[in-house]
Amino acid sequence: MIGGLGMPELIIILVIILIIFGAGKLPEIGSGIGKGIKNFKKATRDAEVSEGDKEPEKLDK
After folding, report:
1. Could you tell me if residue 5 is left (phi over 0), alpha (psi between -120 and 50 degrees) or otherwise beta?
2. How far apart are CA 61 and CA 57, in angstroms?
3. What is the 3-state secondary structure (H, E, C) of 1-61?
4. Are 18 and 26 in contact (CB under 8 A)?
């Protein structure tokens, strides 16, 4: 069970996607989703590194 979805629900969703986009487009869609996830992970990793480089501000008294 993934996020409240069981196997029958996932199969129905996959069949609907197959009907809408067709079998020929599925590899392109999968590739696009994979690239999007890869870019998101890279961006979050880069943001963590840049936040770690910041020095705390010194207060002058």
Report:
1. beta
2. 13
3. CECCECHHHHHHHHHHHHHHHCCCCHHHHHHHHHHHHHHHHHHHHHHHHHHHHCCCCCCCC
4. yes
Name the token pair of 19: 């009907």
Q: Residues 7-44: pLDDT tens digits? A: 899 899 888 988 988 888 888 888 999 999 999 999 98
Phi first, then psi: what are they for 5, rounded to 5°?
-105, 130
Return d(Cα 47, Cα 30) in angstroms, integer: 26
What single-letter amino acid sits at 1? M
Q: What is the pTM of this model?
A: 0.52
